[in-house]
Specification:
two-stranded antiparallel sheet; single chain; alpha/beta; five-stranded parallel β-sheet; globular
């Protein structure tokens, strides 16, 4: 595959509709890479797009989801008051489980408009998964790629670490699209 084709693939992975003019109820930070995802959610909070940040994801470590407490550490560093953030204290191993965790919280708290903050290479699949899960509850979802990630459509073909991220993302997308995920995590 040529570099130009790989760059087009990267653009395809990261392209999502722009955030709407209306405000969201929450900005949800997906697990993984809180160092680059939490600052993007803080930007949304500070610009008035969302009044609250929600942290989700991770395997349980000492009784708490690891990505949640790492996200809390970053939110503390960035000066986000605890009144402006919520931590969903449920193990969520991957995007599908995170979407179901957010759906349950949305039903409990009445959220109808959700902005999901994630890395650019993860945007397309995150949008597909969250639309599939949240659509059942008549909720709207948008995905916001963090501008703080080192991944870009032009950079990833040249960096072995970023190539591995994209390879895993494409595999996960194939598993999601084909329904094979049910073999790995029955019931989802």
């Amino acid at each position: 595959m040529t570099t130009a084709a790989l760059i087009r693939l990267g653009r395809w992975l990261s392209e999502v509709p722009s955030l709407p003019d209306e405000h969201a109820d929450v900005a949800v930070v997906l697990g993984g890479h809180p160092r680059v995802r939490v600052p993007a959610a803080v930007d949304l909070l500070n610009s008035g797009v969302a009044p609250q940040i929600v942290l989700v994801g991770g395997q349980l470590v000492r009784g708490r989801p690891a990505e949640v407490w790492r996200g809390e550490e970053w939110a503390d560093r960035l000066g986000v008051p605890t009144t402006k953030r919520m931590s969903l204290e449920r193990e969520a191993l991957g995007t599908v489980e995170e979407a179901h965790t957010v759906q349950a919280a949305a039903a409990q708290h009445g959220w109808k408009r959700v902005v999901v903050v994630t890395s650019p290479y993860h945007c397309r699949r995150a949008l597909q998964v969250f639309e599939s899960v949240l659509d059942q509850a008549d909720q709207q979802v948008w995905v916001h790629p963090t501008p703080y990630d080192t991944w870009t459509p032009a950079a990833w073909p040249h960096d072995p670490r970023l190539r591995r991220l994209v390879g895993r993302e494409l595999l996960k997308m194939a598993v999601w699209r084909t329904g094979l995920r049910r073999l790995v995590r029955p019931g989802r």
